[in-house]
Specification:
Helix content: 25-40%
Mean pLDDT: 96
Distance between the termini: 15 Å
CATH class: Alpha Beta
Number of helices: 2
Radius of gyration: 14 Å
CATH topology: 60s Ribosomal Protein L30, Chain: A
Pfam families: Ribonuc_L-PSP
Strand content: 35-45%
CATH superfamily: RutC-like
Largest sheet: 6 strands, mixed
Order of helices and strands: EEEHEHEE
Organism: Pseudaminobacter soli (ex Li et al. 2025)
Shape: globular
Low-confidence stretches: none
Strand order of the largest sheet: 1-2-3-6-4-5
Number of strands: 6
CATH architecture: 2-Layer Sandwich
Protein name: RidA family protein
Number of domains: 1
Length: 119
């Protein structure tokens, strides 16, 4: 049983790993936290795209996405606009979005995904 790990973060986690044909991308948060939820979402999706590429897959292969928003009622529409512009219309994954008390006050969005990796 092979597990490939990419982008380790110290002793805590790998930002992406591949096992049994699935890439697991950890929850990604924005680097520039001064932006609004749309700007933060765009950053996070760009990071996810880079990690998926390292794992040998891409956004049209996303199976499931989990989105956490600091303020779901206030920010759901703005986050969705960025998401809808980014995700391929013919490859919509399953997705769940919830409100969460994220790790820092200025983090407005966090997204994790799982994607198929074709051999």
């Amino acid at each position: 049983m092979s597990i490939q790990r990419f982008e380790p973060n110290g002793k805590r986690l790998s930002h992406v790993l591949v096992h049994n044909g699935i890439a697991y991308v950890t929850g990604q948060v924005p680097a520039d936290r001064s932006q609004d939820v749309a700007g933060q979402t765009a950053q996070v999706l760009s990071q996810i795209e880079e990690l998926l590429e390292k794992a040998g897959t891409e956004k049209s292969k996303i199976l499931f996405a989990q989105v956490w928003l600091k303020h779901v009622v206030a920010d759901f529409a703005a986050m969705n606009k960025v998401w809808e512009d980014w995700v391929p219309a013919d490859a919509l994954p399953a997705r769940a979005t919830v409100e969460a008390n994220l790790a820092a006050e200025n983090i407005l969005v966090e997204i994790a995904v799982q994607a198929a990796v074709e051999a």
